[in-house]
Amino acid sequence: PPIAAPAPPPAPPTAEELALADLRATVRKSSSRPFFTHRNVDVEDSDASDEESNGDEEAGELEDTGSGNGKGSGNGKGKGSTTAGGGKKRRWFVRPRSMARWLYRYFIDEIHPKITLRVNTTTTFAPPEIYKETLASPATFWLRAADPTFELARRNFVPTASWLPDVYVFLPHFLVKMLACPSCGRALDKNGLVPPRRICDVDRVYYVVTWQYYCRHDGCKKTYRGWSKALLNSLPGAVQHAFPAVLSQKRGLSNNVMAMLRVCNQHKMGPAGVRHLLIEAHTLRFNRLQLQYLEAALEYVDSTERTVERATELRQATLFDHFDRAPITFPPFGSFSDAEGYGGQVPGDRYLTEMLERGIEAEEGDADQHTSLLPMDQGSLDDSYKFTKHLASRGGIQTYSGLLSITGKFYLRQQLLALTGGHEERIPLLKGIADSLRKYGHRQPEVFFSDCPAKDKSLILSAFPSLGEGLTPMAAAHGLLELKMHALVKISVLTSVLDIDRLVGCVVSPLLDQSRPAAHIIVSLDAEWNLSRTVGCSILQLAPHDMPDHIFLIPVSYFGLIDWQFCDLFLPCQLHKLAQLPPSLLLLLTSDRVFKVGSKVKGDLTRLKKQFVKDLACVDEFTTIDLKDFASERGLLERGEKGTLDSMIGKFLGFYMEKDETVRKSNEWERLPLSQAHQKYAALDVYGSRLLYEHLAHTARLDLVNFETRLGTPVAVLTHEGGEIAAYGTVAANQPKRFASVHVKTPLRNRLVVDIATIEIPAAAALLHLSTARSEAKAAKTKAGAFTFEQLALRANCKSSAPAGFSIVSQVSLLLFDQRTLPLPVATGPSPSSTSPRTSAALPPTPSFSAPSAPTTSFPLDPALAALDPSTAIRVDLRAPTSASEEAALRAAELPPARKGGVTIEDVDDNWEEFEVGDWEEEEGERGFEFQGGRDDDDHDEREEELMALMEDLGLGFAGKRSRSGSDDGAADDDGLDDSLDPSHHIPTSTSETERLIAQLKTLVEARDDPNVPAQEFTRIKKDLFHAFQMIPMSTTHGMRPTFLRMLRDHILVWDPVIRAKVDAVCRKEFNLSFDQMLVKNPKWIARRCPRYVPLPSILVPAIQLVYKRCGDAKDATTHLPLFSKKAWLKANAVLELAREGFLSDIVGLVLYEEAGKDKYGLMRYWCCRGTGMLEGGPHGDVYRKFGALNASPRLALACLTDHRTSYNLQSFAKHSFGVDWDYHHNLSFINRTSFLLNYLSENISGADAYRYWTNGDLYERTKETFGICKLPEILLTRLGMKSYENAGAPLIKMNSSDNWLRRRQGVALPVLPPNTLAARKYYFQTLPSFFLSKTSTGKSSFRLEDFAVRWNSTADGVDRVYITAELLAAYGKIWDRVNNRRASEDLIKEGLAELKLSASVVQNPANLFPTFITSPRPSALDPSSSVLNIVESFIPSSLSISITKSSPLPSAAPNAQSEPRTLFSSLDDASRLNTELAIDSSSGTSR
């Protein structure tokens, strides 16, 4: 052929072309980004620019199932590269915008031909070459890219050669005989290739490619991608485990990253931290590849420029000496995030979070099964309030208030994210544990530890009733006798209208006698109802006082217009519609001459009125006598004292009522015939009410302060009727007609002049002392215009703490006798010779008191000690300090003064206010809730290390600082008992008295092991010792505090004498210290090696009293203040009652120490299982310290808790069973499968012995327990008008993914959340007043919050408002109280705030000049201006060296001259194509 003419030389560029090139270069430079970011720093940031656009755009995507309806998914049918029938060849896939062009060509030109090989020229596809094992390479799924080192050795300076990703080729149809449809089991056909899926690995990105498969059979027609979960699960196990990634809808994470996510999250590195770790690894790999490229370029350039030197010098040849040298240009390597270059991408936080949640939820069933199979010989229950600080709030409101954890001896058994402290959402959890223990053959727990045993008792017993069996009644600890009905009392269940009219008619017959218009009847009345009933009562109990041998039980829930014998013809709902009371019963309820007596009887009748609206609608008010009010009115019950039926029967009659809480809180009250247990429970209430009323009625009233009270009598002045004590003083000797412009002697004779001695509440108002002049009205601090006690004191020229100095006029109703000046009462208790319950009601009236006095509650010494010497009852003096100055100093130095009048049960029992939900009181009849203020977690100070050193030897295993309240997260250490016990305990003062007490204590200790003395066990629900000690508030700087704690420890915990002797010998030999010296120096070391025992209450009570006697009043040498303040005495008394009732003593026969191996000295170490210390120092502390996510959603929190629970239990299993750490992975499904296969193949493969102690959960029936967030009980849903998730109807209200997940977990149509939207808060404040119930004696409002919750839920729309509970409404009420308190506080200094606002406006005057030096533009990066390195004189760092290394890498083998030219990229840019051409070996003339 003719030789072609040479091409003419290119024309020189024109001026316009050169200008255009300069402009483009300028644009490239101005648009370049710093190497460390993918964002353009010159573009103004917007809200959207802060999002992780390369990672978070796919957050929220659903998991890729890979199945469809026959039309395909992904590219869809017909869009694959080659169909199964060999049709027309089409493109594999359309290039996504996020994929670089060079990478797209790589898949089309290189990968596609390798996975679509055909057998010769047939339509059958052949397996790819990598699936075939050869001598050169084993069979593999991976198409590995060539190492860039060898490419650079060939002078292939194309950056894409370093960027090539690995490809995982997953073609399951080549791995099985027949690829079956997971749905129908018939053969699948290939349906084209699926676009490659990008997978993020630890330091790089790789891609997965697979086929799409189609089921052609009628009735199926489903499509599956090769990586779909359903198809993977249908493959052989070996193939399943080979798949390397977890996929989402558009991409995925490698198994390595998923494992790293879960492990890091357990060690305080959440998804955000893992993302930074991935960025570090990915960018480090990119920089390493970039350095390889640059180092190779440096070597090439250096070798070219130094040809002469290499010819004259003896030097080792370089990598490029084996190839011909030719001029070459080097394309830029690019940056990490260059979309058309390396294209580095790391998933965002949200995507990693979703993948973490999905990964854990996929294995949640195995984790729950593993936990359910664990034993629980003993239980511990505690709430943590720190953990919820990790959770995100919604609308400024914390969604969950606390984390409830339940542990056994060693294992974490249950965790719950609690909305409130209410029991209703916790009961299913404990019952689930009890069911699992029975189901899997474990024993029920023998003891349960709690920080608030009295509060949690009903909760625990509802799930574990065996804990309440065979106990001595707790009231016996106070010397009370059981109240039993007389044998002649007949209980009649009236099941027909005829029976009711016949028997109740006899009761009301005196009312029908016209000749007796003053005839009246007294009836004790009570009601019971099913736990699920929201309106009305189930059973009505009547005990006519004129018929003491009869008690009537009337099932009012089934009344109708027909006789009871025909009730089977009607449904219960129909009977309710026909509801009508029998005439005789209606007369008894509505007559104003029938006095209904009972405890909270008005609430029972209110419920009954709502049930029988037609009959009782006309009744405005029932004639009722509440026993608590009756006792208070007669002066027998102190203000604020507990007034339940049980407590008053114990106080006034000396008996206790044996009641089963599981009977009261049941749904069996409407099941007829009533069981004997239900009949006894119902009858005992009205029987006790009758006895109590008759006793109170025959007891003379105590004298109250009145107009005739003796002058000079010490009195207390209240803020209002039933309120707090504002001041103390005496009735003034002079009672004029008028004092300080206030009338004293009025016609009602209801005012007295009082000389004030001590002010307790300076800001309280003196109600009768109103300001008259305008200037005085302006000076009055109260809104009512009355002067405060502080103002009156200042007007009288005396300080508020002065012992005397001014007088006021007070209403008589606001005066009480000063209890501090009354003589201490003598210990009393039920005498063995007391009359029987049947005859005690007819006791003659007691004589009137000649002097003003007040009733007191007497708590005798333990019966065992009292039996030795009844005359030596030990009492603790809780009286006030002797002077006002001492009290003032005490308040300033230690704690705020205690509430006057004692601490009520609510002060210590409602500790769930620490959930940030406030505390509330529920009135049984009205379902009313009282808002009360509560403390915040942040208000608690941290506990100092000295206390830990003293108390950690209790064997509780705490670590780190603790709050003053005793819990790991600032929760209140409430004991759940009424510590408002009468401050009348008197400490013996004489030495002989002390010696006698010590002798008695010695006798009791020596008799402890006497088999003839039966051990009394009052409870198996125990108080944690550490929290019991922390109940006593003491000044941390008091000199006697350390000594008191040591003495208290030595009187409560008894060392094992045999082991103590061994430990003492080792201490003397090894450390030259005695046992006691070592105990002071290192108490934890001693505690781990010497078990201790907490003795019975008969020993514990007098022992604690001795410590109180010597240390309670001990004064500090510097401040001269006693160790115990008034509040400390009250709390100390509560601890004493805990000890008396058995909450602190160990259970006889219960193992609390287990051996944990010997130390190097030969001493045995022990694990202590007593208390909640293991729970708080273990799971709670562990999860709080290691939880990696902040502002976590409930879903993420639950997933992390699931992983934490599994990890914790596996570590405990290894530690407590074998004494080693768990050094293995935590994938339970892998471990279970391995254990099963090794045992199944034990005859063929050895290794099953290593798993003989492993409990394989897959071999047992699946558990029904739920963890973390559980379904709400059906009873609660019914009562509050919520729809369940299953029965909500279709379609469900659409919600965001988080709320949708939450409502599925809770089992409701709408999630249950606190008011967290503006619309919900407005509705709360607008609607709440319509549910106002009443005001309490303390002036706080009470509301019918349960009715409010029903209204709320009936109108919830899922947008503005979701479901809510009464507890959540009460919790939000605490916020309302705070707002009101803030506003009221601002009103007190209204004028001062106005001045401050004015002064602030002056400071913020916009006319003022603002300094210009405060702000400046974004600073540019500045290099140092001096001390630049002198290359000639200084040592050259390796990063600045350009010399060729002494040992250059070996060159690659020369290319084969016969090989075909290799074209990796067919459509690269000009620079890449040029460099490929320059890589030709000039010596052979062939392509590389």
Instruction: Please estimate the helix content.
Output: 25-40%
Q: Helix/strand-derived class?
A: alpha+beta
Rg, Å, rounded: 42 Å
Spans where pLDDT lies below 50 across 5 or more residues: 42-63, 69-87, 560-578, 799-804, 824-989, 1452-1488
Shape: elongated
Give the tags.
1488 residues, alpha+beta, eight-stranded mixed sheet, 46 helices, 40 strands, elongated
Question: Can you lay out the helices and strands and say which pair or pack?
Answer:
Elements: H1 15-30, H2 101-115, E1 142-143, H3 148-153, H4 159-163, E2 167-170, E3 189-193, E4 197-200, E5 205-214, E6 223-225, H5 229-233, H6 237-240, E7 245-247, E8 251-254, H7 255-265, H8 271-305, H9 307-312, H10 349-362, H11 364-372, E9 379-384, E10 393-394, E11 397-398, E12 402-407, E13 412-418, H12 427-439, E14 448-450, H13 453-463, E15 481-482, E16 490-493, H14 497-508, E17 521-528, E18 539-544, E19 550-554, H15 572-577, H16 583-590, E20 594-598, H17 601-611, H18 613-616, E21 624-626, H19 627-633, H20 645-653, E22 655-656, H21 661-664, H22 676-697, E23 714-718, E24 725-731, E25 738-739, E26 742-743, E27 751-759, E28 765-770, H23 774-779, E29 786-788, H24 789-795, E30 806-811, E31 815-817, H25 863-868, H26 884-893, H27 905-909, E32 922-923, E33 928-930, H28 945-951, H29 991-1006, E34 1021-1023, H30 1025-1030, H31 1041-1052, E35 1054-1055, H32 1057-1071, H33 1075-1081, H34 1083-1087, E36 1092-1093, H35 1097-1111, H36 1126-1140, E37 1153-1158, E38 1164-1168, H37 1173-1186, H38 1194-1218, H39 1228-1240, H40 1274-1280, H41 1297-1306, H42 1318-1327, ...
Parallel strand pairs: 2-5, 4-8, 9-14, 14-34, 15-22, 16-19, 17-20, 20-21
Antiparallel strand pairs: 1-2, 3-5, 4-5, 5-6, 7-8, 9-12, 10-11, 12-13, 17-18, 18-19, 23-24, 23-31, 24-27, 25-26, 27-30, 28-29, 32-33, 33-40, 35-36, 37-38, 39-40
Helix pairs in contact: 8-10, 10-38, 11-38, 12-13, 14-16, 20-22, 28-31, 29-35, 31-35, 35-36, 43-44
